[in-house]
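Reply to dn_fold:

You asked what the input looked like. This is it:
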Amino acid sequence: MVSVNYLHVLVAAVVVFVLGWLWYSPLLFFKPWMRLRGQDPVAAMQGAKMPGGKLVVELVRCVLLAYVIARFVALLSIASLMGAVHFGFMLWIGFPVIILTGSVLWENTPVGVAAIHAGDWLVKLLVIPIIVTLWR
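and this is what came back:
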C-alpha cells in the first residue's frame, strides 16, 4: 500500500496556493496578465475584491494536485531533490505545456497568457514534489 503523509500534502497545497496568489498578484504578473487578456489592470484593481468561493475551489484544487503528486512520488520511490525536480519538470512538460500549447494553437489564447500560466504550473509542479520528497 502506498503511504502518503497528509500533513505534507496539506502543507505543499497551502504553499503552492500562496505562491499562485503571489504569481497573479500586482507584485509579479497581474499587470502583464491583464494587459495580455485585453483588460486594463488599473481598472481591474479598482473595486476588486477577493472572490471567496473561487479561492476555496482553488485551495481544493491545490490539495488534490498535491495529493496526486505525493502518491506518484511514493509509487515511483522518488527520494532525492534531483529526482523530485526531474519528476516535476517532466510532469510540467507532459501536461500543462502540452495543454497550454493546444490552447494557443486551437483557441487563440495569447502566447503571453499561456506563458504566464505555464510559469505558474512550473512552480507548482516543482514545489510539490520537492516538499513531499524531502520532508519525510
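The mean pLDDT is 94.
Hope that clears it up.
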